[in-house]
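Fold this sequence, please.
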Amino acid sequence: MKCTCIIDTTVFLNLLNVQNKSQDKKKLQADFLEYQASGAEFILPMATIIETGNHIAQNGDGNTRRKTALRFCNAVRGAFNGEAPYKSSDFPDTTEVLTWLDLFPDLAGKNSKDDAKLEGTSFGDLSIIEEFHKAVRLDKRSEVFIWSLDRDLKQYHHQPTGF
C-alpha cells in the first residue's frame, strides 16, 4: 500500500541534526530509513521549511548557524529539484491562504490540548494539517500521516479501509 508521510518541523530538525533541537535524531533517522525502505513518499511542507529555517537562525553561535544553514539549504534544494528522498509540497496559492485565514481565528482561540489552556493551533500547524487533508483527498486509498513529535499533529493519520 502506498504511504505518504508529511514531515513536521520537529522531525526535520532531527533529520538535519540541528543543535539543541535534535534529541531524537538516532531514532528518527532509523525510522526515516525504515519508511524509505517501505516505499513511503515524503512531503516537506512550506511551514516545515520556514519554521526549520527560523530555528536554525536562532540557535547557536554564528559559525554553527552557518554550517547548519548550509545543510538545511542543501536539503531543501534537494526537495525542490528531486535530489532528496522527499519533495516539497506545492506552495499555497492565494485562495488556499484566504481559506486558512477564515479558519485560523477559531483554531487560535480554541485550546489545542487539554493541558495547554493558553495555546491554540498555530498558523504553521494549520497549513500542515491542510496539507494532510489535501493528500487524503488526492488519494483516499493510501495511508497518509503527519510525522511529528507534536501530539497535536501526530494524531493526523489516515488509514484506508475497504479497498
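The first strand starts at residue 3 and ends at 7. The helical segments are 9-15, 25-37, 46-57, 62-81, 94-109, 123-138, 151-154.
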